[in-house]
Amino acid sequence: MSDRAGTQGLATAGQAPPNHMLPLLFGGCYGWLHLPGPAVQLARESGGRYGVVLCNPFGQEAVMTHRGWRYLAELLAANGMPALRFDYHGTGDSDGAESDPQRVPAWIDSIAAAVATLRARTGVQRVALCGLRLGALLATLAAQEIGNVDALALLAPVVRGRDHLRELRALQSTSRVTPADQLDPAETERFMTVVGNRLYRDAVERIQACDLGKPDQLQRCPAARMLILSASPLDGARRLADAAGALGCAVERAPFPEYEAYASYPELNDLPWSAFRHVTGWLAGASPDALALPGIAVAARVVPAASPLLHGDGFIERRMHFGAAGLFGILCEAPAPAAGAPAVLLVNTGAGHHIGDARMGVLCARHLARQGIPSLRMDLGGIGDSASLTLARYGFQPYDSALRHDVIAAAGWLRSQGYQRVALFGICSGAYAGLHAACESEHIAGAVLVNLQSFIWPEGLEIQEVVQQRPRQRDAATRTYLASCLRPQKWVRVLRGDTEIGSIVRELARRGMLRLRTRASHTAGWITGADTPVRRVRNLLRRLDGRGVPVWLVYGGYDPGLGELATYFGSGGRVMRRYRNVRLCISDRIDHALRAYTARDAVLALLDSYLRTHFCVTRDAEAAREKAVPAAGMETSKP
Fold first, then answer.
1. Residue 126: which of 109, 110, 143 has the closest Cα?
2. Contact 521/537 with Cβ under 8 angstroms?
3. Of 157, 279, 519, 602, which sits with the fewest C-beta atoms within 10 Å of its C-beta?
4. Is domain 311-469+540-636 in CATH 3.40.50.1820, yes or no?
5. What does the pLDDT look like over 387-424, one tens digit per residue?
6. pLDDT tens digit string along 137-150?
7. Which CATH architecture has domain 3-160+210-302?
8. Contact (CB, 8 A) for 92 and 359
9. pTM flag (> 0.85)
10. 210, 24, 51, 222: which is closest to 134 by C-alpha?
11. What is the pLDDT of residue 340?
């Protein structure tokens, strides 16, 4: 069922009162406990209700499915079942790093700690584990070790680890489009990389050795009941069901056709309404049509308790809801603040929640804290862990003009907490929201904007319309196309008929004509005094420059945003040299989403340099200076 069909059903269904959302910290893991509202809880007390622990998938899948995972937790709570969703140790907001040893045992230990925490906090007698993809494999392994799990709900489960690793390698291969995407090796003797997330060798070997369909790998019955929603007839679910059934587990199987539409970019994916209702009804012993539903927009009541502090290696973090709209952020502070340090506001990219692609938001915040610089990584309204979660399909538009007000509200909140200066850091659409917020807010004293794709966005244009046009209007950088045309191998494939070049030629011609029309319009506007897109865009930076707000625009050398830059500021952004407080940095060591470790290091070095240059951050100055040496291939305009 699509999101659109699902929301039509929700609009007429009985809706439960708002649930409570309680922040938790256990074993170095961040979690959210979704508790039923008082009326629901009283109605269910005599039913021997389940408590449910939700087990994340791995890496980018965890980012893509976050919105749905939160909705499932709300759906479970609306039907009297407290649900705990959390990040494994070394992932998401939790403590630790992906390079820590023995990740698979650590993740299983995290699930065990979550089960113990759920029992202690809620008093539930029966516990169910619900896992998605790799989380389903981990949930099954954890259930065997814990030994007191009553039910397992496995969504698109990984049954044979070798097959899953093959899928991950294929995903990594298809994501390496430009030279910037190939900055990091796909696999070495120490690790394999999957869209910016690394699995180190011990984890790879442990996953590869898993095959839940083999009778000898299930030592005992993992749970009394098991529900398997299978995304493919080839995923091994039947073998798992047979192996579990032979141990006395009551197994139910059903298809999961919604998975492919669910595992997509956060701003584009469809929530699997039918699958989530199936899981909830199966656990509640009720028909999916009889369930209470949270509604199209989930507005959880965040329990006003003191947020637990995470004391990590060189940082202290606490979760905050703030503002009238209940915006969410994680405030990351340093044990010993640096003199003169501003607070850095990290803005969402697209509809991905605050951890960022390949955990970039978390890594950046903790990197800054170790230098004495506080930060707030935020969720804009309607996404992530903000109090209100938009569920309807296409409910979130990353270029919505209203989002700048959320950024402004976050900057104002930081000022109210005693931080006198606020600097923005945003990537792609986060850079767009940050740019426009900086133009309107007196609280924002600087900005580092990475791979800005658009300076102005047509009102009413939805991101989905742009994505649907991509097969006809490709979004690779012009430099990528030109480099492709100069490779002999490309022409050999064209002559063989293995590939075609006409679409590339048409796309380059379209870009050239667009640039000519924009410049002609600007020239005409200069003569007549009329307003033009070029004038509006340049006024954005002129306004910041006039206020003395330092802005660094950072681009990867192969980034599609360079075309937009050239359209409004000339080739290489030469017009920007007119502004005293604007600096342009272009590097071949930066990919678009900063998924490459090399790219992250380069951008963090630039951020260090920016803070030292404009805010006189003094702590660890020598170390910061060494990191901030421009990398080979870095081009910068004069400040």
1. 143
2. no
3. 519
4. yes
5. 877 665 556 788 988 899 999 999 999 999 999 999 99
6. 999 999 999 988 99
7. 3-Layer(aba) Sandwich (3.40)
8. yes
9. yes
10. 210
11. 80
